[in-house]
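Hey all, quick one. A colleague (J.T.) asked me to put the fe (ii) ion job into the tracker so the inputs and the structure tokens live in one place instead of scattered across chat threads. No bug as far as I know, just bookkeeping. Sequence used:
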Amino acid sequence: MSLMEEIIAAVDEMPPFPQVVQRAMQELAEPEYEVSGLVDILKVDQAVTANILKLCNSAYFGLPRKVSSLKEAVVYLGADQMRRLLLSGAANKIYEKPNEGYAVFANELWRHALATAVMSQVLCRYLRLKIDENVVFTSALLHDVGKVVLSAFVIEEYQAIESKVDNGKSSFQEAEKEILGFDHAEIGGKIAEKWEFPPEIIAAIAFHHDPSHSPKEFRLLVELVALANNLVVMVGYGTGVDGLACRGHALLLKKLKIEAKDLEKLLLLFQIEMEKTCDIAGVGDD
Ligand SMILES: [Fe+2]
Ligand SMILES: [Fe+2]
């Protein structure tokens, strides 16, 4: 098997994205979603149900009495918190594998993914962009999922990749592509295709390092995820070598009409939301 065939085979072996979460997201995307419909979807998954109840009864919410019904918990948490809880739970499992090839641990990649999702949502709201928040959060959360597959191959070819980056001619993901035949963004796009995600999410993942080549109809979403990826790296949620791949954010800031004063506010909002999301997702933010 050639290296490229091996990589494609590894994509095929990726576990499926949880059906329950995908169906719940479709329900949550409706402006007037039915609580009972959502409960019917969620109740078949015991682990998900347990997590929802656990979160609702956690010290974070400090409710005066115990919530024991899923329906009550769904109503109490609301769409935004349900989305963060369900998606982050599913994505955490996917990013769980160590990513030695990228000189990061799974936990670091996971924090980066979560931070990118939060930053994308904050940007989307701040700029009042008319993009579905499920799509924004999912795309950003999974933008580096290709690294889960490529990591093992990156370790094997690390010397060759590193020397390409070192001589200054290639960024890390350009070197990935030259040596492995694919970069992690492209592989992420293939994983999203396998999961039968909508085309805008596939595009956001596949073009997050190269938004100017994304399909025009999804360009705004792709730029949003690309910018969020760069901004979180700047504020300390990077993943080792990924920092080297970040460029072009000045152009994106200009395109999205974000000025220095906006950036200050955005970073503040990001820190607040990131803390909340870490509580919801049950991860330590340090
Ligand atoms: Fe990336
Ligand atoms: Fe990234």
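Adding what we noticed when we looked at it: Residues 70-95 form the longest helix (26 residues). The domain at 3-14+86-281 is CATH 1.10.3210.10 (Hypothetical protein af1432).
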